[in-house]
Amino acid sequence: MLDALFFRRWLTAAADAVDREAERLTELDSPIGDADHGSNLQRGFRAVAAVLEKEAPDTPGAVLMLAGRQLISTVGGASGPLYGTLLRRTGKELGDAPEVGPARFAAALRTGVDAVAALGGAAPGDKTMLDALVPGIDALDALDALDNSLDSFGAAREAALQGALATTPLQARKGRASYLGERSIGHQDPGATSSALLFEALAETADGAGGVSREGSRG
């Protein structure tokens, strides 16, 4: 089962990953965006890590909702509302439960991903963060079929990474990059790349927790 501590560790690991990759995210954003994706997310996730250390919510849903609010209030541009919506909607779906099974978390996260798609009016293939989020959540849906959900967290990390890499030959159809038309082709999408970092942090957190039991995967 996954408790509030697991989710706090996940978001702290995500903040570390964004911090480590901020310069690269900005480099990816430079030719097709506003050259601020890395710095914006770095500021936002540092604020998330700080507020979670200070307030330490005691349920998974509360952790994610607090983190989402923090991102919305500190990240400029489209990234704040999109990432904030992802976490807030996932947290709301989890409710007040003190612990959740991985399958329930996966279902809630899909609700969050769907909310991001609705907010941005985008779909997979549009060269956005959804090109990593959707493959990642699709991989998590395999949780119930596995004896050890750690395998699915790892599979989700790989699926999200491959989804981000696959944005390079795409032409952007949504967001700032879409204004470039065919000139957006040949550039890896920064939003998909940062979204893949969330799944990377999730897999690392699950690995550090020693995986999740088969019984937990039914929650």
Question: What is shown here, in short?
Answer:
The protein has 219 residues and is an all-alpha fold. It has helices spanning 4-29, 37-55, 60-74, 79-94, 102-120, 130-140, 150-165, 190-208; strands at 2-3, 99-100. The N and C termini lie close together (7 Å).
Please characterize this protein's 3D structure.
Strands 1-2 form a two-stranded antiparallel ribbon. The chain has helices spanning 4-29, 37-55, 60-74, 79-94, 102-120, 130-140, 150-165, 190-208; strands spanning 2-3, 99-100. The longest helix has 26 residues, at 4-29. The chain has one domain (2-218): Alpha Horseshoe (Serine Threonine Protein Phosphatase 5, Tetratricopeptide repeat). Residues 212-219 have low confidence and may be disordered. It is an all-alpha fold. It has eight helices and two strands, in the order βααααβαααα.
